[in-house]
Amino acid sequence: MWSKHCKEICDTNNVPIIIKKIKITKKNIENQARKKRYQIFKKILLPSEVLLTGHNLDDQCETLLLSIKRGSGLKGLSGIAHKKKIVKNYLLRPLIKYSKKKIKKWAIRKKLKWIEDPSNYNIEYDRNFLRHKIIPKIHHRWKYFKKN
């Protein structure tokens, strides 16, 4: 479903696409998938190419809280970097300062289509538990928590 959606968008916009399948075990799925994605990106990116991701302000907030939960040191508490060197390339996160809500509003105005991963609503995952149970309470108390 996701690869078909991405292929259709790329075909419509005359953008080349590479689709890779990965195998992961059922333990720590999110972390495994992330690591495998970045391994693939490192292999296929040409030296002059830049990788852009859709990480946003909400991701930043979730990551910071997860780092605190894990007892991270200063490096972990610095959050998601806007720019990061990955081997011979750069990873840029141009949306990191924008909330998910603001990005969705923009996408709706532009009549863009997207797919939401149903697992994002499974609060068995720590990130989703924070997203759906903890962060709304923090935001209710301190409206500008994410921005700070």
The strand count comes to 3
What is the CA–CA distance across the termini?
37 Å
Average pLDDT over all residues: 92
* Helical content band: 40-55%
Approximately what portion of the residues adopt beta-strand conformation?
5-15%
CATH class of the largest domain, named Alpha Beta
Number of domains: 2
Strand order of the largest sheet: 1-3-2
Question: What Rg is obtained from the alpha carbons, in whole angstroms?
Answer: 17 Å
Unreliable stretches: none
What order do the SSEs take from the amino end to the carboxyl end, as H and E?
HHEHHEEHH
Tags for this entry?
single chain, 148 residues, mainly alpha, 2 domains, 3 strands, nucleotide-binding
Produce the secondary structure layout.
Blueprint: H1 2-12, H2 29-44, E1 50-52, H3 57-70, H4 74-77, E2 83-86, E3 89-92, H5 100-109, H6 126-141
Parallel strand pairs: 1-3
Antiparallel strand pairs: 2-3
Helix pairs in contact: 3-6
